[in-house]
Design a protein that fits this description.
Layout lengths: L1 E2 L2 E2 L7 E3 L4 E2 L6 E2 L4 H14 L20 E5 L5 E5 L6 H5 L11 H9 L6 H8 L17 H13 L3 H13 L18 E5 L4 E5 L19 E2 L1 H12 L13 H7 L6 H11 L6 E3 L4 E3 L14 E2 L7 E5 L4 E5 L3 E2 L4 H16 L2
Parallel strand pairs: 8-16
Antiparallel strand pairs: 1-2, 1-15, 3-4, 5-10, 6-7, 8-9, 11-12, 12-13, 14-15
Helix pairs in contact: 1-5, 3-4, 4-5
């Protein structure tokens, strides 16, 4: 945890390998899952700052396969009808999760993977995803989906680099993130993937991956594919908290861009969708450009300020970026099955209470 742009608290408990009593620590490598999304958003916003695109640009201008989309429509008799979309997907729609996109594994994306004998490059998979009908007209609703994966493909088009290479050159290397990558750099430091761990018996129902985040060898998921460490990711969190300026003096985003990212982007219907999706843990929040953003701190009993932003990860990672309070918080765990979203708010509030008590 950073406060006023200085590290003030760091704590580790538990094991990365229970059977062999290997402690979880600052150098333990784990999967970020959807905490990857903040990196993807930061990368695409860098390219916006470089005038590579505008938020209002149609996606098809860069990935032509997304020009003529169809939309699912439910009829009164319960059947589904496909109609041509009347609205083009824009890059802002992707960033706000209002594009109508579903998951990234479809019969067409699987066909690409099979035809390449399991290779399945990121951009090729994303192009094949365009054949899948949308769930609604872009901009009308919110749906948590593969939008960040498509943004990953877009980054490849705009930069001419593989997604992981762009991340490394423009974010990781610049601010000192040595272990963050789409590939596991050190198997010995990797935290085991425990599923439904029982703290009383110290056993799990199973050990291993339960999410299909890498359907092919070459696929790099902008929505959830990165590995990292606590010591790496807190540097990134702090850079966002300081309006894009990292602790080593490197600027990865401009101040105005950070403000754009945490500005609410959802219409009334989309906000209702977000509230249904997020449940109690997202009370008081809305969605900005690829991140949750706090719009009513009272509704979440939050000690953080309105404008605090971030996201979570499927096995419990939690990112809090609060420029007004000058608080950067990163919490990590790697266990599938626990209801981690129930205690994230408690983690946040205890952290804030601890610094204010001083």
């Amino acid at each position: 945890m950073y406060y006023k742009h200085k590290p003030v608290f760091e704590h580790y408990s538990g094991f990365s390998d229970v059977e062999n009593q290997v402690s979880f620590g600052m150098d333990t490598i784990f999967r970020l899952y959807s905490a990857t999304k903040l990196v993807t958003v930061s990368a695409i916003m860098q390219l916006m700052e470089a005038n590579k695109f505008k938020l209002s640009d149609p996606l098809y201008a860069y990935i032509p396969e997304y020009r003529y989309m169809t939309v699912r429509h439910q009829l009164e008799d319960g059947t589904e009808e496909l109609r041509s979309s009347t609205t083009d997907i824009t890059i802002e729609h992707l960033l706000s999760m209002t594009a109508g996109i579903g998951g990234f594994i479809t019969k067409d994306t699987q066909k690409v993977i099979d035809e390449t004998k399991g290779e399945g490059k990121t951009l090729d998979v994303i192009r094949a995803l365009a054949k899948e009908p949308l769930f609604f007209e872009p901009g009308t609703h919110f749906k948590y989906s593969a939008c960040h994966d498509i943004l990953g493909g877009l980054i490849e088009v705009l930069s001419g680099k593989r997604l992981g290479d762009y991340f490394k050159e423009n974010i990781f290397d610049r601010i000192g993130m040595k272990d963050t990558s789409f590939t596991l750099k050190d198997e010995k430091r990797f935290c085991k993937l425990y599923n439904n761990f029982n703290g009383k018996t110290n056993t799990a129902e199973s050990i291993g991956e339960s999410f299909n985040l890498k359907p092919s060898r070459a696929y790099e998921s902008g929505g959830g594919g990165l590995f990292s460490t606590v010591s790496d990711y807190i540097l990134f969190t702090e850079a966002l908290c300081n309006y894009g300026l990292a602790s080593n003096g490197e600027r990865i985003l401009n101040r105005k861009t950070i403000s754009e990212m945490r500005t609410k982007r959802l219409c009334e219907e989309a906000q209702k969708d977000f509230e249904r999706f997020g449940g109690v843990s997202k009370s008081g929040y809305s969605y900005g450009l690829g991140v949750r953003t706090l719009v009513s701190r009272e509704d979440n009993n939050a000690l953080s300020q309105n404008g605090e932003f971030g996201w979570d990860g499927a096995r419990g990672c939690y990112v809090v970026v609060d420029p007004e309070s000058e608080v950067a918080l990163f919490y990590a765990q790697q266990e599938g099955g626990s209801q981690w979203w129930r205690w994230h708010g408690t983690v946040r509030n205890y952290a804030y209470a601890s610094i204010w008590s001083d």
